[in-house]
Amino acid sequence: MLVSRYAAATDVGLQRSNNEDSFLSCxxxxxxxxxxxxxxxxxxxxxxxxxxxxxMEQVRAGLSLKQAVQQSHHEILNAAANGHGGQGMGSTxxxxxxxxxxxxxxxxxxxxxxxxxxxxxxxxxxxxTDHSYVQMLYQTGAITADELETxxxxxxxxxxxxxxxxxTINVETVEGEWKKGDCFLLCxxxxxxxxxxxxxxxxxxxxxxxxxxVDELIQTALSCGGKDxxxxxxVEYPGTFRNLGKIFLSFFSK
Length: 254
Known about the structure:
about 250 residues; alpha+beta; about 35% helix
C-alpha cells in the first residue's frame, strides 16, 4: 500500500516564550494530529502532548478516531489530578485518519483541517467548523462572515479537551473520499488566524512539495506577526506528484 507523502513543523512564533503546540505524524497508521495546548508554561505543552500520544495509542489499540480523541480528554484530566502539568490545562485538536481513498477528520476547538483539491471549483475547502464564540455568533446571525474574521473575541473557544466543566466532549467528525492530486492541511490557529484563506490557497497552488508548502505557510504566518505558536501539517494523497503546483497548473492549462 502506498504511503502518503507528508511534512509537518511547528514554530514558537514571535511573541511567545514557549510552544504549547504538539503534532504527530504516524503514516503507518494513516494518522496525523495537531494539538494546541493552553494553560501556560509547563501545562499547555503537557496537555497537547497527552492528546497526540493518547490518540495514537488508542487508534493503535483499535478505537475509532472519535473515541481516541474523547479518551484524550480524560487523560488530560487524570494527568492534572495526579500533578502532571497544571490544573485547568487543556488543548484543542484536529486529527486526520486515512485508509486508501477514505478519510476521517475529528476535531475539538479551533484547530482546523482543510482539503486542497486542484480540480475543484474552489480548490481550498475548510472541513472543520471552529468551536468558538464568534462561530456561534455567526451561526445565529448575530455577526456577518466578514466580522467573523475580525471580531475581537475570535480566540474564545466554546470547548476544549481537559475542560473541568465537561464530563464528555462533543467530538465532531467528517469523512469522505479524496483523490490523486489532493492534499490535507492541518493547522493550529497560529496559522489560520494570521494568514487569510486566499493566501493559504495561493501557497498550496505554487508549492513544489509538501515540505515547501509547510515552510512557506509558517514563514508567512511569521511575517504576519507570529502572535501565536504555529503548527502546520500537509498530507498528500498516496502517489501524488511531488510538485503540487504542477498539478494545479496542468489541470487549468487543459
